[in-house]
Amino acid sequence: MTNDMSLQDINPCFPGLDEHLIFFYAGYFSQNIINAIGDAVRLRIGQSDASGSVRRKIFSTFIEMAQNIVHYSSDSLTPPEQTTLEMRAGSVLVTHVDNAFLILCANPVSQEFAEQLTPQLEPLRAMTNEQIKDAYRKALRSETNENSKGAGLGLLTIAKDSSAPIEYGFNPIGNGMLMFTLKATI
């Protein structure tokens, strides 16, 4: 499925993103791959004239999106019984458009997972920055959701660091699967 994943997989949802491309990766993600490409992203955004705070937010958002791919993409090379080294497919893009940095990710998900994810995403779009920060603090103190591979902080972190409401979509890709896309603006 992901052997053909390219910038065009994201572009139909967010056209014009490749004009000022900073970083794009499509393929299989693991924690080791995230660490390696994280170094490349850090170097590339370090070359921009963005403030330290903006660079930190870009990097943090990139890491959260890449980790979400490792944890939740439906396209996995990892056998179900293996939990130590997950490898799952997706793509991440960082670009600079109209004085803003855009970080996007895309990965295949099942219809069932999309139905579970939408109620988590939609409220984030309507929340103020202060409400997102409050929800983040509460999530830090709460117990981990049984369906979450983290403390449920990833989407809150992305929304907290974004300067505009996050955008997302689910596009059919066949075999009952959907391509989940998430966009953060910094």
Automatic annotation (TrEMBL):
Pfam families associated with the record: DUF6272 (PF19788)
At the top level of its lineage, which domain of life is listed? Answer: Bacteria
The record, for NCBIfam families, names: SiaB_fam_kinase
Name assigned to this protein: Uncharacterized protein
